[in-house]
Amino acid sequence: MVAFFIAAYCIANERYPMEVTPHSVLEHTFGYSEFRGQQEAIVNAVIGGQDALVLMPTGGGKSLCYQIPALVRNGVAIVVSPLIALMQDQVEALRALGVKAGFLNSTLSAQEIYDNEQALQSGTFDVMYVAPERLIQARTINLLQHSQIALFAIDEAHCVAQWGHDFRADYLRLDVLHREFPNVPRIALTATADTRTRQEIIERLALEQAEQFVSGFDRPNIQYRIHPKDKPRQQLTKFLRQEHDGDAGIVYCLSRDKVEKTASWLQAEGFEALPYHAGLSAEIRAYHQRRFLREDSIIMVATIAFGMGIDKPDVRFVAHLDMPKSIEAYYQETGRAGRDGAPSTALLLYGFEDVVKLRQMTSNNEGSEAFRRAEQERLNAMLALCELASCRRQTLLRYFDDDLSKPCGNCDTCLEPPKTWDATEAAQKALSCVYRTGQRFGVQHVVDVLRGENNERAKQYGHDQLSTFGIGAETPQQEWKALFRQLAALGYLDVDREYGSLLLTESCRHLLRGEKTLELRKDTKTTTKRSKRQAIEIDHEDLALWHALRQCRRRLAEEYGVPPYVIFHDVTLQNMLHLKPNTIQQMLEVSGIGDAKAQKYGHAFLDILREYEYKGTD
Ligand code: ADP
Ligand code: ZN
Predict the structure, then answer these.
(1) Which ligand gives the minimal distance to the CA of 38?
(2) Is this model's pTM higher than 0.70 or not?
(3) Which of 459, 493, 521 is the last residue of a domain?
(4) Domain range holding 241?
(5) Distance between first and last Cα of the chain
(6) Relative to the CA of 33, which ligand 1 atom is closest?
(7) Are residues 58 and 188 in the same domain?
(8) Could you tell me the distance, in angstroms and rounded to a whole number, from the CA of residue 278 to the centre of ligand 1?
């Protein structure tokens, strides 16, 4: 009897060296001492067999929400992700933690697929990443039916939203999971916040029974800045040189052509910039993405084709040289900065031509009238955000039904409150000039008429005879243009989709009649800037050691063939610098170092730390 107990005990202990609880996995595997926000509740729900819908901002810590249940529940967790190019890195990151992970997608050979499938069935894996198009094949479903499944995680779940810009048709068929595996818990995760998308996820993935976990959407470490364009290239280089020298970041442009030109120009200026857009071959895209992930200070110049799921934690800035179509897109794109929680910047430069271009794009779009109107409204909200004179973050969060009671103190309007002015009279002049010239001209001509310039062209149309000719001569051209941009942004003017001529809208009536006044923000030169500081702040006397630790990380990354952040994140290295552990046991105290990483990489770092301690006492 006793022997039986001992044997049973040994078997149990061989498989589970300690009691496997969510907290022990958090600590020993991931090296973190506490759960963040709603993580614990989510983890417990899934472990308990419940479905969950998780809406959490980028960097919030979504991955642990399925990775911990994967290790606590019996069987393998199947993670559906559209991001084939990233699966390898995700799997390597898990393996570095000692988790048995694999993936199934089209980048593998037939033999590798076969091997992974066999291993899956025999219960070798804890976590398996699968591309959606593969998952929905009858063959894969059949395979899964003969395996023990711990859970299904549907990452980037907003890909089911048909009008969203990340739509993947294969995601629509993921409801098969519900039908074929009614007893396996499913957890859907996304960083997309709007309620419409949330509703679509619930309906299409049959998640009516799922518990919903909606986190606050604030990203306090990101500084939001929106400035009018004024020689954008110079604005950008100044920003890069003064504030983000040597940092990794993303520069978004609207068109492929502009991506190419901007990347070449940045290279000529001495930056390590690479282009990324859907017109490049798959190999080049993969190569550029790989360099971005594996090197420390690449600037990726890209269209929106780049970024979904990029979980590089140390992206220090996201700059937009063109305005995004909606606040959802803007928030998602800027959200790629600062996943590690360290200070980061989101800079948007925008001008009148953005307003024109986007208005034309929305009206050219195929689709129902209702869809077009919804798109217009999203654009209007984005434009209003740009012209805002109060805290940007408060407005952003309110857009996602999330409240911030006080101004944030970390956006351009908080840091440098803009001056406003009574623009009523100037707006009346501008709008009546549009009216008098017949709503047939673009902004340049109307401004010329207001300033009484370019007489030849004005004469040609008889505009030199108008009452508005020259009534704004004292105001500089640039200021008139800014006013037109603001009037268009705020919906007083529309832009003809074919010719770009300015059109009056219904809402100018009150303004023209003097029944309404208009307060606008004054355009200023881009002066707001964070005083130059490192995102990760290091004391001066620790600087040499810091560089040595980073050097050690780079060496290990090359040796293991993984990105440096898979070894340790910057914040982990920073914590190591702070604690200066002397032993492997002390190494485990460092946030982000669990058992496997301590064993695998700990000694290399201890050597460095000891060497410097010795130097320090010299
Ligand atoms: P998301 O997928 O939501 O964008 P991740 O899962 O990539 O976020 O997590 C973002 C960062 O936060 C990662 O560096 C991760 O290691 C870290 N992190 C997650 N949970 C915790 C925690 N409980 N304690 C400390 N760091 C955490
Ligand atoms: Zn603010």
Answers:
(1) 1
(2) yes
(3) 521
(4) 223-350+388-415
(5) 62
(6) 24
(7) yes
(8) 29
